[in-house]
Amino acid sequence: MIILVKEQKDCTHTLQPMLLRTSISLLLLYIIGCWLPVAAQSRASYSKADTVRAMRDLFEERRGSASTLTTIGGITTGLGAGAMLLGFMASDNLGGAILLVNAIGLAAVGVPMLVVGKSRQKEVMPEQEEAVIGAYEQGNPLPRELSRRLRRRHFAVP
User: Fold this and answer.
1) How far is 103 from 95, CA to CA, in rounded Å?
2) Angstrom distances, CA of residue 14 to CA of 3, 7, 78
């Protein structure tokens, strides 16, 4: 029995350096795999017209998502307000309480969606789009938060 334990110690002792090398190799492969797409994308150069078209696509995409978020938030908030009114008007205490709890839940989801949607709509107004694109065409760099949002799909030819 003692011999078996000794053999296990020797076996694990030789496995530790191999596991360490394997772990380091996998970590390096992961880092390289994460870095390569970023490096390839940063080397791509686009003309000014391509960048303007990509910015217009980005603004249009963000306007669509902002209006969708605002619409869903408005509908959810409206349903919550309607359920709250029905809860207050209910003659049955238990039914009214259930409606009030559901109304509070709907309002808790709908109001933040509505607020975020409205704030995003202000960020992507057509006036803002024209100001950013006009500044870029005059030689100013793109705002950092917008240039980070540009993806390869925005530069694709329609």
Assistant:
1) 12
2) 17, 11, 67
